[in-house]
Design brief:
Distance between the termini: 22 Å
Helix content: 40-55%
Structural class: alpha+beta
Strand content: 15-25%
Strand order of the largest sheet: 9-11-10-15-14
Radius of gyration: 34 Å
């Protein structure tokens, strides 16, 4: 045996060991695992359709984030126009649904146009000022700024959801943007056994605000308006209460709340499940240094007034400010122990920039996932055995060569998945089976070419040389084009489609190595065992 051939065999052996480690891990990592299957699944993670779990597609209501930004812009405009003594009749948002970024200013003195332009340019650089009829102006967000704001809302929502899911301890979650420019999020949570709880945690906006309560409780909105002479005071809004205070027959409770917030969730340092003074489940929160200073300043100036704790635009609690408070507080609301743990967790993870709407939901039970595994593995094994037997019967000794190359191919494929932490899905198993088919196709191309060369009178070594040199161009061409197609599927696909593309790419890359290199080395080794290289079983 030549040194060159020995080196190639040692290279194949080394690669085999490397990828076996990718599947099973190192020997000292085997302790504590429940068998071979546990070792494999510890390295190659099962997808949602095999392990069971929840699949969600959520729509980020990006106009919520735009409305918040334009509300802040409107508040700054009013404040600056008062400071600059710019006269105006009113500042409104005429169409917050279809044009949430547009703010209309009516009745501006024509001589103060330049002052208004200066305010918008200096204080609102993301907005344009456009003239309208009868001394009115429209302040609207620039197109690029609007697109950036919506994209930031999606990115922030993904990060917030990821923080919440991580706090739940879900292993191998998939949280990513879904589609191009659709403002959608894909969430896949393998092994989740309480999808309703997860949905509530994911969807919770968790917008915490502490405001001044100006009146209430009222049994209805009409009652609140009657109490105020039919017109709400400027800078106030009616908010529904959760379960506190006086209610009418409909079970509603309403409060008159200041629009301005003393502190918000962005001022929160931490939150944890706790108990209130009556021993009931509650959430205790601690503010940041800056948040504590703002809260102390607010409570110092409003001793004797009512303070409202508002969560997701719903009043959770109203209490009298008896003294100045620095940086701690408690949220009550007739919570259960589980609700306080979930609420404190979502508060710590941060507020969503916009509300979420569920577009799609699928739940796969663990038993169904186990059935999928059995069916997929059985199909793969039956197909694999049939292919191995066919190659042995049809190509005789060369069939052993092909079978070794196919097994090597599967080892490399699974090793790749183990090293890269790829997720195996049911379509991924289909990708494995397709890889086996592509491997067989490569061997058939080579073997038939060798047979043709032998029929033309070539010696076995020459036939093997010619067979591989003529077939490998076709093999590389078909594999590269298929890999490109699979890469496109991976880039633009999601979930199961990506699982199929992943196994297909890894399998084809492995097949290029096994069909062209490993199979050739086995042929050379077999021929080297005969002095004149005259024996070839094909």
């Amino acid at each position: 045996m030549t040194k060159n051939l020995t080196g190639k065999l040692l290279l194949i052996l080394a690669i085999l060991v490397i990828f076996v480690v990718g599947i099973f891990g190192l020997p000292w990592e085997w302790a504590g695992h429940g068998g071979v299957l546990a070792l494999v699944t510890d390295r190659i993670h099962l997808g949602l359709d095999l392990k069971g779990g929840t699949h969600l597609i959520l729509q980020v209501q990006v106009n919520d984030a735009v409305n918040v930004d334009s509300d802040n812009a409107m508040a700054r405009l009013k404040e600056d126009m008062r400071t600059r003594k710019i006269n105006y009749v009113e500042v409104t948002k005429p169409d917050p649904v279809n044009h949430p970024d547009a703010v209309v200013i009516k009745g501006v003195d024509p001589g103060q146009r330049s002052d208004l332009q200066s305010i918008v340019a200096d204080r609102l650089p993301e907005y344009n000022l456009n003239s309208g009829a009868e001394n009115s102006y429209t302040v609207a967000m620039k197109a690029q700024s609007l697109a950036d704001l919506k994209n930031r809302a999606v990115t922030q929502a993904i990060e917030t959801i990821r923080n919440r899911i991580d706090a739940l301890g879900v292993s191998e979650p998939v949280i990513q943007e879904h589609g191009l420019g659709q403002y959608q999020i894909l969430v896949q949570l393998p092994g989740v056994d309480d999808p309703a709880r997860v949905k509530a945690i994911v969807q919770s906006t968790a917008m915490l605000e502490i405001k001044q309560s100006m009146g209430g409780p009222y049994g209805s909105q009409q009652q609140a308006l009657q109490d105020r002479g039919g017109v709400l005071p400027e800078g106030t809004v009616l908010m529904r209460g959760r379960s506190i205070g006086r209610t009418d027959d409909t079970g509603e409770t309403w409060y008159l709340i200041s629009r301005a917030s003393a502190v918000t969730g962005s001022d929160l340092r931490t939150a944890e499940s706790s108990r209130d003074e009556n021993g009931q489940p509650a959430v205790r929160f601690v503010l940041t240094g800056e948040g504590g200073r703002k809260f102390y300043s607010f409570t110092s100036a409003h001793v004797g007034d009512n303070l409202a704790v508002v969560l997701d635009n719903q009043v959770q609690e109203v209490a009298v400010i008896k003294e100045a408070i620095r940086d701690t507080g408690v949220i009550n609301g007739r919570f259960t122990e589980q609700q306080t743990r979930d609420l404190s967790m979502v508060l710590r993870s941060g507020a969503l920039p916009a509300s979420l709407k569920y577009l799609e939901e699928r739940t796969v039970g663990p038993s169904l996932g186990a059935d999928s595994i059995r069916s997929g593995v059985q199909a793969a094994m039956v197909g694999m055995i049939a292919v191995l037997l066919f190659m042995l019967i049809y190509y005789r000794g060369a069939g052993i060569n092909a079978d070794i190359a196919l097994i090597f191919n599967l080892i490399i494929l699974l090793g790749f998945m183990g090293y890269f932490g790829a997720v195996l899905t049911l379509p991924g198993i289909a990708g494995v089976i397709l890889t086996v088919g592509m491997g067989v196709d490569s061997n058939v191309l080579i073997f038939e070419r060798i047979r043709e060369e032998l029929r033309n009178g070539k010696t076995p070594p020459s036939a093997v040389e010619q067979g591989f040199s003529h077939a490998w161009i076709t093999i590389v061409d078909t594999h590269v084009t298929t890999i490109v197609s699979a890469a496109i599927l991976f880039i633009f696909g999601t979930g199961p489609v990506r699982g199929f593309a992943t196994t297909l790419v890894f399998g084809l890359a492995a097949n290029l190595f096994t069909a062209v290199f490993v199979s050739r080395v086995i042929f050379d080794w077999n021929l080297s065992r005969h002095q004149r290289g005259e024996a070839l079983s094909i």
